[in-house]
Design brief:
about 160 residues, alpha+beta, elongated
Length: about 160
């Protein structure tokens, strides 16, 4: 997913945000199919032949596993909610990765600008000695060069 320009990265982020907004209800957890015996006296599950399946959603809350029973009528709906959550998590990861790329691109620029600024400060560019205004206006006073504030000279 190596994108070159900032514009392309921003458009990729916008696309993923739109997809994220189109997702419906979400439910975090892992669907787990379990089997149990029923209470009917003549059911084959009483003899251990065929048990009845049911769905639970398993999640971790404060380092403890919790399960949520899903009614049979809602199984398909809840499975789609779990899939929406997984899709959203994937999209958020991609958005985060693209944001990281933007930061890395801009940090290189910021470092280059700071380096350029520091190099200009270190160079301390001064006007040439032949400039009469400079020689007469900024004469050293008691061994130091006195430059009035508000002029370009106080930056030197």
């Amino acid at each position: 997913m190596e994108l070159k320009s900032e514009k392309r990265i921003h458009s990729s982020i916008e696309l993923r945000l739109r997809k994220l907004g189109e997702l419906g209800t979400m439910l975090q957890g892992t669907p787990v199919r379990k089997y149990r015996k029923c209470t009917a006296p003549n059911c084959p599950c009483k003899q251990g032949k065929k048990l009845h399946p049911f769905l639970v959603i398993s999640t971790k809350v404060s380092k403890k596993t919790q399960t949520l029973y899903v009614p049979v009528a809602m199984e398909e709906t809840v499975l789609s909610w779990v899939k929406n959550y997984q899709t959203a998590k994937k999209l958020l990861g991609e958005i985060s990765h693209l944001g990281e790329q933007l930061v890395r691109m801009n940090s290189g620029r910021v470092q280059a600008q700071a380096k350029e600024r520091n190099s200009w400060n270190r160079m301390r560019i001064r006007p040439p000695r032949s400039c009469q205004a400079f020689n007469t206006r900024f004469q050293p006073v008691f061994g130091r060069s006195h430059r009035p504030a508000g002029t370009m000279a106080h930056y030197l």
